[in-house]
Amino acid sequence: MAGGGQTQLADPLMGQNHFTAVRWVLAIAVVLGHIWLLTTGFEPFRIHEWTASYMAVNGFFVLSGLLIAKSLHTRRDMKAYAVSRFLRIYPALVIILAAFVLVFAPVYSAEGGGSLFQPETWQYTYKVLALGDPDSAPAQIFSQNLETDFNGPLWTIRFELAAYILAGIAFMFGAVNGPWRVLSVFLLVQSVYLGAPVFIDTSALPPSVMSLLRLSSAFLLGMTLWQWPILRRPPLLAVAGLIAAFALLGGGPLGELFATLALTSLMLRAGLPKRASVRIAKIPDYSYGIYIWHYPLLQVFLVGQPDLSPAALAIMTAPLILLVAATSWHVIEKPVLALKLRARPINQKTVSPEVAA
C-alpha cells in the first residue's frame, strides 16, 4: 500500500535504524577504492566495470533521498529544512577548506605554488564553496603523486546540495507529494539518464549534465521509497533476484540501474531491520568526515612514500582517517547539527536529525 503520509510505529524508518552503519560501509568502500586508485591507478573492486566507490556514491544519494523525503513530509517547514541542509554540509566543508589554505597548500605544493597569498589558493577555496568543480590540483599541490588532485571526492557535494534545493522546490509545488507523482518523476529522470547515450553523443555535453542525471536518479529512487513503504521491506527472494539480474545483465545498458537496485535492496535489508540494535543504531556518524577527509590524507602519505602498496597505505592511514573523522563529528558536525534541534518547537525536539551524506 502506497502513501508517504503513513507513519506507523511498525515502520522502522520512523524509529531506530541501522542507516548510520550502512553509511559507514559506503564511506569505507569509497576509501578502499581510492587507496587502490592513488597507488596503482586502478580500482579492483568492481563487477561489470561498476566500481565499489562509484556504486557507494549512488548508495549515498539513495539514502539521502529517502531521509530528505522523510524530513520534508514529516516536518513541512521549509525554513528549518534549508537551515538543516546548510548545517549538514557547510561547516565541515569550511573546515577542510581552511585546512587546505593554512596547511595542505603551503606544505604540499610545488615550491612557491602554495603560498597563503597565492590567488590560486583562494580561487580554489571560493570555487568549492560556490559549488564549482573541485577536481583539480590548485597551487600545484601533490604534483609528484600519481593522482594530482587535492580532494576529488568533493565533486559530489555540489550535486548533493542541488538535490536538496530541487527536492525542496519540487515539494513546495507538489511534484513529489504523492506516490504516483514521485514515481513518475523518478522514471522520467531515470529514462533520460539511461536513454541519453542512445540518442545523443553525451561526451559532447558538460560532464556535470550526466552526473546530475545519474545522482538525481539515485536521489529520486530514495524519495520514491519514502512514498512506497512496502518497497522498504524487500523480501530476501526479491533481493536475490535483483542481485542475479545485476550479475547477468550488469554489463548491458541497464547495468547501472540493476546495480543500484540491488545495492538499494541490500541497504534496506541491513538498514531497516524489524528489530534494530540499540548499540548499532547509536553509533556516531563519521561517514561524512571519512568521505571529505580521506583523500587529502592519503595523498599526504604518498608524498614521502610514493611506492607504498595499497595494503600498506590502508594500514598506515586508517587510524588517522578515523581520528580526523571522529574529531570532525564530535567537535564540528554534531554540535552544529544540535543547533537545528534548539531552533525547533518543543514538540519536535524528539525527532532525531537525519544525516545525509
Please report the distance between the alpha carbons of the first and last residues: 29 Å
Secondary-structure element string: HEEHHHHHHHHHHH
Number of helices: 12
Number of strands: 2
Largest sheet: 2 strands, antiparallel
Written description of the protein model:
With 357 residues, the protein is mostly helical. It is 66% helix and 1% strand. It contains 12 helices and 2 strands. It has helices spanning 19-40, 52-75, 78-108, 119-129, 155-172, 179-199, 207-227, 236-249, 255-271, 278-281, 287-304, 310-342; strands at 46-47, 50-51. A two-stranded antiparallel ribbon has the order 1-2. Helix 1 (19-40) runs antiparallel to helix 2 and helix 11 packs antiparallel against helix 12 (310-342). It is globular and about 60 Å long.
